[in-house]
């Protein structure tokens, strides 16, 4: 009798967290990240800022030509300054992973960054999102930026 009760309690304990997550949370969190990429491509500073919380920031781990890495911490306003010409860039996170736990979500995966019709660099993006009254917003993110790190698959991709 103890084993069926223990099994039932274990099943309930595992089911409760899954029930608290809305089925569309993963899609909604991913949509915010994809919207950010669209706004970057459109060079829309207002749209870029709208994807994040007011205090959001990005940590960029950039591989330099001498092989060393440089770490930059970039606030939302400063980030918008990188995108000034509509259609000049496109970023694609082609196989994103999404995890959700309550009011927190993480979206991460490899990406390819195009400047015009050429690959500029590849790397890994990771975004932490929080659920706000206005919906999911990017709280922070981190990206590796390495022109020499594109996989064979990524080298064949087109914008």
**Helical percent range?**
25-40%
The top-level CATH class is: Alpha Beta
> End-to-end span in angstroms?
61 Å
Largest sheet: 7 strands, mixed
| Unreliably modeled segments | 4-20
Provide the succession of SSEs: HHHEEHEEEEEH
Tally of separate domains = 1
Rounded to an integer in angstroms, the radius of gyration calculated over CA atoms is 19 Å
Structural class: alpha+beta
Number of strands: 7
Describe the structure using short key phrases.
159 residues; alpha+beta; Nuclear Transport Factor 2, Chain: A; globular
Account of the protein in words:
The chain starts with a helix and ends with a helix. The radius of gyration is 19 Å and the shape is globular. Strands 1, 2, 3, 4, 5, 6 and 7 form a seven-stranded mixed sheet that branches. The longest helix is centred in the first third of the chain and has 19 residues, at 2-20. The chain has one domain: Roll (Nuclear Transport Factor 2, Chain: A). With 159 residues, the protein is an alpha+beta fold. The model is unreliable at 4-20 (pLDDT under 50). It has five helices and seven strands.
Secondary-structure blueprint:
Blueprint: H1 2-20, H2 25-41, H3 45-50, E1 52-63, E2 69-75, H4 76-80, E3 89-92, E4 97-101, E5 104-115, E6 118-132, E7 135-145, H5 152-155
Parallel strand pairs: 1-7
Antiparallel strand pairs: 1-2, 3-5, 4-5, 5-6, 6-7
In short:
The protein is α+β, with helices and mostly antiparallel strands and 159 residues long. The chain is built from five helices and seven strands. Helices cover 32% and strands 42% of the residues.
């Amino acid at each position: 009798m103890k084993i069926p009760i223990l099994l039932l309690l274990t099943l309930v304990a595992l089911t409760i967290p899954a029930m608290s997550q809305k089925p569309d949370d993963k899609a909604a969190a991913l949509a915010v990240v994809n919207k950010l990429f669209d706004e970057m491509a459109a060079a829309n500073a207002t749209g870029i800022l709208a994807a994040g919380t007011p205090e959001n920031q990005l940590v960029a781990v950039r591989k330099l030509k001498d092989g060393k890495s440089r770490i930059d911490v970039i606030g939302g306003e400063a980030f918008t300054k990188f995108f000034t010409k509509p259609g000049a860039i496109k970023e694609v996170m082609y196989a994103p992973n999404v995890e959700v736990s309550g009011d927190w979500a993480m979206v991460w995966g490899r990406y390819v960054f195009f400047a015009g019709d050429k690959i500029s660099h590849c790397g890994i993006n990771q975004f932490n999102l929080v659920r706000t009254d206005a919906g999911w917003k990017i709280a922070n993110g981190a990206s590796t930026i390495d022109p020499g790190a594109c996989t064979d698959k990524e080298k064949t991709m087109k914008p």
